[in-house]
Amino acid sequence: MTALKKMLKEPEAFFPPGYLYREERTAAGILLGTGMLCSLRFFGRLHVAVEELYYVDRIRGRTLRPGEVADSFLTLAGNCVFFFLPLYLFLAAMMIYHYFYYHRETKSIYLVRRLPEKGFLGKSCVQMPLLGMGAGMVVMIVLFLLYYGIYLLSIPAECMPRLW
Amino acid sequence: MLEIRNVSKIYHEKTGSVQALHDVNLEIGQGEIVGLFGENGAGKTTLLKCILGFLPCKGEILLDGGPIDRGKIARLSFATCEHSFFPNLTPLSHRDFYRMHFGTFRDKRFEALMDFFELPMRTALRSYSAGQQNQFEVILALCQGADYVLMDEPFAGNDVFNREDFYKVLLGILEPEETVFLSTHLIEEVERFIGRAVLLRKGRVAGDITTLELEEQGRTLIDYVKETYGYRSDRVNRALEELTGER
């Protein structure tokens, strides 16, 4: 919790010193948002899957097809993972970019390489991208849980597949 | 004591191997001000980078009898003409950063030097002039609280008055246990400020003499350098004569 507070209050402490992080943060935010938006396609697929479970009877109206089994949750939502892939690739590239930051304009690499603190260089390069990846993962898991809840509510129990 | 024992360094390049340092042996005692001289490519920068552990090399580099590990690295500071500060940070942020990482940071000296050179504290270093950036680079190296201050052409780009000021300030503020190892081409300029001169030629130590010895011999440093390098003063005249066809 303290780390989270610090991250929100002093995000610069998680980047290489003097690194202009705002553009990177914005880009990561856009990629995360895009991933989340794209994952909304789940609802379209869920809608189609639910509709396929029913047929319209002139007398009884919308009726469940007997013996019909719905597509599994993973079939409907599994590809949502790929929508977050650009975010992870971007953050992985940022780790390398942070390292080369120490060679741009000046050779601040000479300073960070002679700091008594062990692992400062590596930490400053990877910690924010790793935190970003972690945040992306949490968002993805929360979305999956939410979508799974909606899936459970939308699919009638008798049409539920045995396995995902 | 900084001991450099049989240090050799070979750069492997696509076009072949270049031996930058050949069995360099040096001992630099605490409190010495040593000038490191040599032509371009003599190995001065390579030697400093080997001492700091930036380049792997053969041989041994010891500080007070032991290798320069993470526990000892803070005893060395480095000012380079390539600059090692963060260009987007202000001097104030650098002070905080150094304070956080080097427990021996000299606050008073930092403020005094910033004041003396009239460098703005709250301006990002990228906005400084090249000369001011050099000054700041040296100020950081002097204020880290290191016992050994290594400098690699730190005043390239500064005007002569500015450099003169710096040498004087340097001599004035250094404490007896502080050591300076200064690589420079400005031989005549630093002669009055150093206590010893080390000459490198093609990666080898070609000369090592104290200014006191030079004084006793009635020679200047530039004479010593010329002799050691076998500099032929008539070379230019002969070349000009040949070029112009004059006899």
Strand order of the largest sheet of chain A: 1-2
Number of strands of chain A: 2
Mean pLDDT of chain A: 91
Q: From the alpha-carbon coordinates, what is the Rg of chain A to the nearest angstrom?
A: 23 Å
Low-confidence parts of chain B lasting 5 or more residues at pLDDT below 50? none
Helical stretch tally of chain A = 8
Task: Please outline the helices and strands.
The complex is a heterodimer of chains A (164) and B (247).
Chain A: H1 2-9, H2 22-39, H3 41-52, E1 54-57, E2 61-64, H4 73-77, H5 80-83, H6 85-101, H7 109-112, H8 120-154
Antiparallel strand pairs in A: 1-2
Helix pairs in contact in A: 2-6, 2-8, 6-8
Chain B: E1 2-13, E2 16-28, E3 33-37, H1 44-52, E4 58-63, E5 66-67, E6 76-80, H2 91-101, H3 107-116, H4 130-143, E7 148-152, H5 160-173, E8 179-183, H6 187-190, E9 196-201, E10 204-210, H7 211-217, H8 221-229, H9 234-244
Parallel strand pairs in B: 3-8, 3-9, 6-7, 7-8
Antiparallel strand pairs in B: 1-2, 1-4, 4-5, 9-10
Helix pairs in contact in B: 3-4
How is this structure best described in words?
The complex is a heterodimer of chains A (164) and B (247). Chain A is mainly alpha-helical and 164 residues long. Chain A contains 8 helices and 2 strands. Chain A has a two-stranded antiparallel sheet. In chain A, strand 1 and strand 2 form a beta hairpin. In chain A, helix 6 (85-101) runs antiparallel to helix 8. The longest helix of chain A has 35 residues, at 120-154. Chain A is rod-shaped, with a radius of gyration of 23 Å. Chain B is globular, with a radius of gyration of 19 Å. The N and C termini of chain B lie far apart (55 Å). In chain B, the strands form 2 sheets. Chain B has a 6-stranded mixed β-sheet, sandwiched between helices. Chain B has a 4-stranded antiparallel β-sheet with strand order 2-1-4-5, with helices on one face. The longest helix of chain B is centred in the middle third of the chain and has 14 residues, at 130-143. With 247 residues, chain B is α/β, with parallel strands linked by helices. At the A-B interface, helix 7 of A face strand 6 and helix 2 of B.
